[in-house]
Amino acid sequence: MISLDKKILDFNSSVAQRMIDYGKENELFIIIPDVKKNVLDLSPTVHVWSTGGNKLQQFCRLKKIGKKIIQDSRFKIQDSLITTQDPFFIGWVGWYLKKKFGIKLEVQLHGDFFSSYYKKHWFRLCLAKFIIKRADVVRVVGERVKNSIVNLGIKENKIIVRPVAVDVERIKNYQPKIELHQKYPGYDKIFLVLGRLEPVKNIEWLIDVFKVVVEKKNKYLLLIVGSGQEEQNLKLKIVNNKLQNNIKFETWTNDPISYLKTTDCVLFPSLSEGYGLVPTEANLMNTRIIMSDVGVANYELKPGDKVQILPINNKTIWLKAILSV
């Protein structure tokens, strides 16, 4: 596995625990591009390397470590599979190893990379098309992404739809350790955004919407939980608009279920998604959801009493929906 998820390197993370579970069925070798070099075993059958170095060094070392793993006597080529977490540069490394050693290649698509949002990244899209067409298996997280690549001419018989694993019983039976209205008293409603703070998540636009919400409902709180490249810009925007009393930040939590269970409504304004784990889990908890028409929306997750699926970036409709909670 060639993965971009650095949480694998943290033994206590849910991602690392998921890798350990995968290792109960098959021996798993994981390579991660990272500025720090590391080698560790998460379990007797799950082995992890991080490359170290700058971007170019990371790319070269992915190839070098991959070759070394495959040439190890424990690695049985005929029974093996290379899986890459995206179809871009690590996808190219996977394709290189496939060509060199004759191992089957699975390319994972966690995002709807061929949606209109990504059209400006023309080089990456050309690379993705090249890799996907040469993969033996293309694994997608939802029907929306499947339809997207079928339109590229990828045959359905080499596409596997495998949603992100969700522990349904654990989520339904989980007793929250945090109650948001106790943690943030004095608010009539608490709205939650949970996830990476990246441009595609569209949080800056949501802040503009919530600024108008606060003018009408000054006891509404927007709680943003997560981190990412947009974090400082978003915090500055909140200060400049004097919204500190109504929009608050928390860094990522290891107890997201408590937040999802005790909020009044989950907001999911993304511009593009391959799936959408946050609304999927929130729906299992019967928490109210307002989301863009992306990812699971209108596919795995249908509109209903607690689920509103709205057009992307339609401020008027989003404002009305939030005020109706």
Q: Overview of this structure, please?
A:
The mean pLDDT is 95. 35% of the residues are buried. By secondary structure, the protein is an alpha/beta fold. It is built from twelve helices and 13 strands. It has two domains: 6-168, Rossmann fold (3-Layer(aba) Sandwich), CATH 3.40.50; 169-323, Glycogen Phosphorylase B (Rossmann fold), CATH 3.40.50. The longest helix is centred in the first third of the chain and has 17 residues, at 55-71. The strands form three sheets. Strands 10-9-8-11-12-13 form a six-stranded parallel sheet, with helices on both faces. Helix 11 links the parallel strand 11 and strand 12 (288-292). The protein has helices at residues 14-22, 55-71, 89-101, 122-134, 143-150, 168-173, 180-183, 203-216, 231-240, 256-262, 277-284, 315-323, and strands at 28-32, 37-43, 46-51, 81-84, 104-109, 137-140, 159-161, 189-194, 220-225, 247-250, 265-268, 288-292, 307-310. The chain is globular, with a radius of gyration of 21 Å.
